[in-house]
Every structure is written in C-alpha cells, then in structure tokens.
Amino acid sequence: MYFSRPMNLGIIGCPGADHFTNDIVHNLKRYYSRKHQQHIDLISKTYGIEKNEIERKINLLKDIQNANLWEDLNRYPDIEKYRVPEFKVPVKYTRFANGEYKADIKKSVRGMDVYIVQDVENHYGIDINEDGKEHKLSVNDHVFMLFATIDAVIQSGASFVSVVVPAYPYARQHKRKGREALTAALFGRIIENMGVARIITLDIHSKEIENCFNKCRMEDLHASYQIIKMLFNFIDVEKSNLVIVSPDSGAVERNKFFADNLKKPLAMLYKERDYSKISSDAKASNITEMKLLGDVKGKTVFMADDMVGTGGTMIEAMRRLRELGAEKIICAISLPLFTGNAIENFDKAYRDGYFDKVIGTNAVYHTDALYAKEWYVSAPISNLFARVISRLHQQRTLTPLIDNSEIIQRLLSDPQITFSYGL
Q1: Residue 280: per-residue pLDDT
Q2: How far apart are alpha carbons 402 and 47 in whole angstroms?
Q3: For residue 259, what pLDDT band results from cuts at 50, 70 and 90?
Q4: Is a pLDDT exceeding 80 seen at residue 4?
Q5: From CA 89, how far away is CA 13, in angstroms rounded?
Q6: What does pTM read for this prediction?
Q7: How far, CA to CA in Å, does 258 sit from each of 204, 244, 375, 400, 421?
Q8: In what helix (H) or strand (E) does residue 250 lie, and over which residues does it extend?
Q9: How far apart are CA 34 and CA 352, in angstroms?
Q10: How confident is the model at residue 5, as a pLDDT?
Q11: Helices 139-155 and 183-194, interaxial angle, to 10°?
Q12: Is pLDDT at 121 greater than 90 in this prediction?
C-alpha cells in the first residue's frame, strides 16, 4: 500500500511558509485519500469483498509491520477507516535576542524523505517564539533559518532532503557584468554541500542557475496552466482580439509559450536602460526608452513575467501599452513579491486606467488586504507542488507536470473540465 500510505514522507514548513505548507499538506491528504478509495473500490468490485472488510485487513497488515503500533493505535483508533498520513513534521523554532535561529525537530525523521518548504519573500510579521511578538524577516533571515532546518533534518538521520523554495533567493544575481558575486549560484552550492538532494522552485529567473550544481537536482515548475485557467474568467480567449506581449527581451521565451499554446500573435516591448541608476522604487525607474515590436491598438493584451518587485517596470510597460491603444491589459506574475510600496503603486496605476487585472500565484504569502483589491486575483499552485512532491516520492515521471502544453490544449477544447495533471 505504498501508493496510499507514504509513511516515510515528511513535510516541514519554515516560519513564513506555514500557509503554503498547510496547503500542500491538505492537497497531499486529499490526493492520497482519493487514490486509496479508488483502489478499495476496484478490489471490492473485483473480489466481491465488502469495502470495510478490505480496509480492516489493510490496517491489520500495516499494524503487523508497524514499529510504533501503540502510538499509532492511539492516533488511529478506528480500524475500519483509512488512516490519512500526517505528512507534516512538527518543528520548534527559536529566535534569540541576538538574531540567531534554532530549529528543533519534534518527531523522528530517520530514514524519511523530507521536503522543507520556505517562503523567503514573506516580509510580514511572524511570531517565531510563540510569545505574541512578531518579527519581520529579511530574505537573509529566511535563508539562514532554512539552513538551520536543513542541518537539523540531516543531523536527525533523514534519508533524502529536498528544499521547496517557490521564490528562489538571489535569483536576479545570476550573471556577472563586473566585479560581482554570483549569489544565485552560491546559494545553490551551499545547500548542495549541506546534503540537499533536490530543489523545487517556480519559474526560475534564469536557466543558468541550474548549471551551478554537481549532484543536486533542480525541478523548475511553471504556473502556466493555472494562470490560463484563471484568464478564462476574464476573457473569451477564442473570440477576443488577444495579443501576447513580452514585457522585455528576457521574458520572450515565457510569453512565446503562451502565444504558441493560445495560438495568438506575440509582440515585445524593447527597453533601453541606464544601468548607472538603481531602480529603488516604482517611480525611480532606470528605463530611458521603450519601444513596441508589434501592434496592440484596439486589442486585449496579455503579458506574463516571472516576478515583480517594486512594480515600476511593469507599471511603465502597462502605461506605454495603454498609450499605444491597448483596449484591455491583463498581467500574469508567477512570483508577486510586491516589495516596498508596490501595492500602493499598482493601486494608483489601476485608478489611472493603466491596466485591468493582475493574476498572481500564492507562491509568495500576502495578507487578505491584497486579495481584497479589485485588480488582483490569485491562481493557487499548492496543488501543483503537492503532486510534484508525491510523484518524486513515488519515483514517477514529472513530465505531465512540467510540460503543461497537453493539458492546456485540452483546457482550450473544453474550458469547463478540470484536470488532475494526468495523475
């Protein structure tokens, strides 16, 4: 019953990633419960045995092999029902007065396949010590807390350790123009040397980052299916005069994927920048000139990017597209960081009529204040991560999850159907 009772699969959520971790665990429980029920139904039909009797015998066989029988029987007293795995491993975190962090694993993980989830871009207040005091953590705080957790898990005897970072830290520091550090590669090498076997992330800023590893495997997921599914709520893709626009040359491949799958034309904004200036906020942009390669007049524009920080570049692009005659503008952001005053800047841009909707994902935590905005909608991707973790644990292929072209085409043929990613 390996497929329905992965007792050696553990999920750990670092402070800041609690919401995303809980969503992953919820989806894992739902998936394994459904697969187990399908298995029981098939056995009952094939062998003519009552379902409760099959469940009882399965539980008996598991209990015979169970080294923690007394503990688990107290947790699962009903021997005629499916015992849903807990998955989540409890960890006690401590933040000391000098800023040091400590991770204490509260359950044995010896021999387990452990996935550590961290949201390095959660900059809201977090009660780490459970004393009612909240701390707003930087990316560096989150990264070092991740290091502490990795080491605690490895020291506790886990067989395989994987790191889930939807927003890969320092991803924009991936190429050197002068005497600069390649910090994106440095982060990857550090956790590889610590013993991490795999990194799971979302829309990595540059594929070059994957080249920094010797043995560690990176799984770069994409939210294209979830975003297109959400896009269907706002426009009729088939009937609308839709054009896909790449906000810059670096995002061409991403937007070409949408254009190819939606069978729509592709345009691109070319930006010239003054790199002697630093884009500290949305108003202080280093863009000196912006040109459009293509036509958007009287059309609906869909524009996708991997991440948005202060939002200055994206807002300037939307303003320019509106000036060029775009009738409707919808943007998709895989990693809506919204740092600094970004939300206020988007509020003002929306009031000024620069755009119509922004589709983000829940890969980065935000409070309900953002979700209440008329211009913002979230496309959940927790289910995608849960299924990737399940497939990796079962040593199955990830192709149906990473290459979304097939399910997108099926979605286009019937927008009302819902898929389970081919599982």
Answers
A1: 53
A2: 37
A3: very high
A4: no
A5: 8
A6: 0.90
A7: 17, 7, 22, 17, 18
A8: none
A9: 47
A10: 61
A11: 20
A12: yes
